[in-house]
Task: structure prediction
Amino acid sequence: MSNPISLIETEARAVIGAAADLAALDAARVALLGKSGEVTALLKTLGGMDSEARKSFGAAVNALKSSLTEALEQRRAVLEASALETRLAAEFVDVSLPGRVEARGSIHPISRTIEELTALFGAMGFGVKDGPDIEEDWYNFGALNIPAHHPARAMMDTFYLKAAGRNKPMVLRTHTSPLQIRTMLEQKPPIRVIVPGRTYRSDHDATHSPMFHQCEGLVIDRDITLAHLKGCLVDFLRAYFEIPDLKARFRASYFPFTEPSMEIDIAWDRKTGAIGGGNDWLEILGAGMVHPNVLANCGLDPREFQGFAFGMGIERITMLKHGIADLRNFYESDLRWLAHYGTSPLAPVTLHEGDPA
Ligand code: DAH
Result:
């Protein structure tokens, strides 16, 4: 009589080898090792044997079980690999095919300018930060060296908020400058960030909106000088306005949070509105070296760290670049206007070289 175990093994291996797919393989597994499987049935007979027979037969059945388990696993691996191959062949995607271009809608000019600022300053090593629109009075004013009753507060037409449940006076931020404070408190120098974001003042006419956008910039390190400020901002203005030799003028001014402070003008022609040409100057942004009091308010030693800051109106630079006459158009959601001044969502932001030299 041939050994039933080796017979079962030979037959079982044939069935396993012939299993054409994972379902057939699973059926084979159940028929062999399942509750009422052939090998399980053999194991059940062990109970009725004397201890000598049980020992040798038991070892043989267990060896059979593990050898078949292994055979099942190997076959499973082969079948899975070929199933994957079939699927990959069926689901082939030609990534080199051109996309189906269906540019719906457009990027709002304000969003577009923010994308451009992010790309241009990003190329100069600046990160982007944001912060709360509802700001603590201290970050918006006090920490920026604007004490209570300072005229700069009145100049900013502030929306003060009722301090519901808070013990700190709150405002709608009147500028993005409070992010100078938040950044210096959160991270150690070297710092290089821009902060594009919404700002609020109680003001409304063709050139003022109660909600508008600014972009702040802050650079803090050891040995930062006015020369860095000038180089950085001239490069930025030339790149943003896409005029490689755009002339810029640095004019002394006053901000409580910078010393010295300046306003930066670019050349333009008052009659034609052309930027770059002409003999007139157009104010674009405020800037200066961060005031020692501001550094100290943020726990930085002004003898060790210096830096510069700048701030500009996003609507303003957008209007100038694209010849938009009325600020209110930005917020009217007129689809014709948006189609004209918006940018295709598929158009990448390109970096223009600032300095031709
Ligand atoms: N925060 C100023 C404003 O809203 C703009 C400004 C001026 C920001 C000079 C600066 C700066 O960082 O250095 O009028």
In short: The longest helix spans residues 51-90. Residues 353-357 have pLDDT under 50 and may be disordered. The chain is about 40% helix and 20% strand.
